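One such given next:
>
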Amino acid sequence: MRSIRPLLVATGLVAALALTATACGPSEDEAADKPAAESAGGNGTGGGISADLAETLKKHGVDPEKWKNGEWKNWDKDKWLREAKDFVNPVIDGLWKPERMKSAKDPAKTMAASDFSGDQGVTDPEPAPVRAEPEDLPYHDHAAPVGKVFFDSPEGSMVCSGTVVKDPKNPGRSNLVWTAGHCVHAGSKGGWYRNIVFVPAYNDKGKSAAALENARPEEIAPYGAYWADWVTTSGEWIANGGPTGGEGAPYDYSVLHVKPESGTKSLEETVGNALPVNFDAPEISQISALGAWGYPAAAPYDGLIMHKCIDRPGRLSISPSTPTMYRIGCTMTGGSSGGGWFSEGSDGKPALVSNTSIGPATAGWLAGPHLGRGAQEIFNMMSDKFAGR
């Protein structure tokens, strides 16, 4: 049976992204696109755990010091923090070593194709597959804001993709990363994932697994690692999302606020750039091309190489009551989840308009949410919270 899954996996657009990344449809029913934003946060530093974080852990019967020393591996349902206010992600020094990053799996899950059949709003014919192409090397010269999101789940270490985005309240000094909701929260049947880290331009020179055995740390993580100290996702994803996407898929987006594992320089200053987010993209039929970037990790890919796909988008409706999603032909697989989708604006420059959410188990296409009023709400919440910081 054919299935689909969340992908916890030659146009001017390519040139435009490269220029901005150097190192130096709206729903027919607007009311359907009104998520209740959910934010979460609380983070210690490498040297200790904050008082707020310690209090949250104790409330759930977890000793703060035991948490740092391995209690985070306990996924007992009574200790798996679920609510927005309960997110914790204390820095654990040395946890994400290169070998652990390489062993992280794509969080691939499947769902029956019948869930997408029938007359469910507006759905265009399935697009022809577009072969994913490797990004040019080194990544810091061509797509520096794109990177990998690593996290721990009950199934082990997992990986998604993400993008550094501009922060209107901290111009030139953004610490915001855009990714998918299912890369930070399990949805209706689970809670927040743990040890969430973003590594921009991962494996900068595109080395093979064998070559990475002797690679220097700066070749694996050229800009270092950034721990999430606050996270937002949609209330719809928390309430309705799941291992198969479901009706949470049209709201499958997340914004991370991160801080460096070492040092104090902002992510945008370190990477050299960030991409704007466009919450007012034109109707899908008016977009001539969308480009998706990410690190596919499920076969035939190994998660080490950044890839991209560019195609004219179509529409995919999950349910008549939820916003229509973008869909493009693309052979990227699990691991590319959360990777940014970019479209050229009226100024000829790319802006992020979506992120990879779901795709078929056999690969061939990807779908991502339309970023409407609800997505802008969680983005503004994050920007306001860290204004001037």
Q: What stands out?
A: Confidence is low (pLDDT under 50) at residues 1-12, 18-35, 43-47, 109-120. The first strand starts at residue 3 and ends at 6. The chain is about 15% helix and 25% strand. Residues 130 and 330 are 4 Å apart (CA to CA).
